[in-house]
Amino acid sequence: TPNGFQIIIVLEHHLSLGTGIAAFGIISIRHSISWCAFSIVGLADRVQSMPNQLSGGQQQRVAIARSLVNNPAIILADEPTGNLDSRTSIEVMDIFQRLNRERGITVAIVTHEPDIAQYASRVIVFKDGRIKRDYVVENPRSAREEIESLPDQREEDEEE
């Protein structure tokens, strides 16, 4: 594809191989899966964008979308918010929380940021290659609630 987004053909449970290929063709199935994954992460309107046309947060969401095309049971995310601003970090955590809640996908996140760890329901702390602590977060932070409490992005841009 033009933007380098590689798709492996995976049919969702509601699409059977026979009807999918007969009705839509292989290319349409690829586009449908790609569009669906991009929709989940809020980038359906950017499917045809080149990587250099995307912000760091959008590129991170593309990485999440790519992980979804194989319909995984688990996503391993290494420092997914490391180079992102606060608002975008919360948006990424919202995507992970929704995937866990709505699709039952386990999300394992590696982070050095204690505040990001508080979005999880379980935290395992490592030091020198050994487990130092393993605990359940009684009341994980809700990324959705935090996003809704933030000022609108346009308001923030106008203030600057």
Q: Tags for this entry?
A:
6 helices, two-stranded parallel ribbon, alpha+beta, two-stranded antiparallel sheet, 160 residues, Rossmann fold, globular, 46% helix
Question: Can you tell me about this structure?
Answer:
The chain is globular and about 45 Å long. Helix content is 46%, strand content 14%. Strand 3 and strand 4 form a beta hairpin. It has two domains: 71 residues, no CATH class; 88 residues, P-loop containing nucleotide triphosphate hydrolases (Rossmann fold, 3-Layer(aba) Sandwich), CATH 3.40.50. The N terminus is likely disordered. Helix 1 packs antiparallel against helix 2 and helix 3 packs across helix 5. By secondary structure, the chain is of the alpha+beta class.
Overall shape: globular
**How much β-strand is present in the residues?**
5-15%
CATH superfamily of the largest domain: P-loop containing nucleotide triphosphate hydrolases
CATH fold node name of the largest domain: Rossmann fold
Compact description:
The protein is an alpha+beta fold.
Strand and helix map with partners:
Layout: H1 17-40, H2 56-68, E1 74-78, H3 86-103, E2 106-110, H4 114-117, E3 122-127, E4 130-136, H5 143-149, H6 153-159
Parallel strand pairs: 1-2
Antiparallel strand pairs: 3-4
